[in-house]
Amino acid sequence: MDNATPQGEVQMASVVATGPMGRNTKIFLIRIIIALILICAWQYSSGRLLDDFWLSRPSTVAARLYQWSVDGTLPYHTWITLQEMGWGFLIGASTGIVAGVGLGLSRSLGDVINPFIVALYALPKVAMGPLFILWFGIGISMKIALAAITVFFLVFWNAYAGIRQNDEELTGIVRLMGASRSQLICKIIVPGAMAWIYTGLKLSVPYALIGAIVGEIIASNRGLGYLISYSAGAFDTTGVIAALFVLMAISMVLNELISFSERRSFRWHRVSQ
To answer: pTM for this one?
Structure first.
């Protein structure tokens, strides 16, 4: 009995250390270490191995971000970009899910419309910027439209493919059990496509940001895209890199939020495993 107790404690400690929380903590610490190594290498090489005009320095970028935060530049322009990206993401994602699910459920209609959607998808979204300026002007509506059209196709194709890849055997069994079409759609087909839909949502987050930024670079006097364009025009490498860091931070936070929502939605899947 005396020997069994320490052994049990060791096994319990091993389970805790290798559990989900322990693994997540380990991954987080490794990421922090890698980031610190890269920042230190950047700080050391700038001005020694490379001219800091081209690369700036982490300390200088941090000082610029602090300056922008204090004088209100960063909150103002970030809020503008977040509005454009947020509305573009919501509009593009919602319409993409509805269109993807609708066409996926109607195979004949989907087969007819599919070539036209492929043709539209092949158009470079950046090339549509001047057309959107003619339609919506140079205000926030143009950036929202550019972000929405970029997000739409990514979410649409994933939703469409997810619906088309539903389990035919399971659907047939449930139909034989007397399920109606609406029950099949709500209980089997759409839940089975959720993994595809979430993949499309996660992929579209950076593209929504790209759409908003490209719109701001094309025609705007506010937003993070404007900060990048203005800083580049002034040969201000520090300003460009500082704005890019803000964009990366926004993309990472939003991607984590969608991943959290996905984990919450698929708790039943983990429990069943």
So the answer is: 0.75
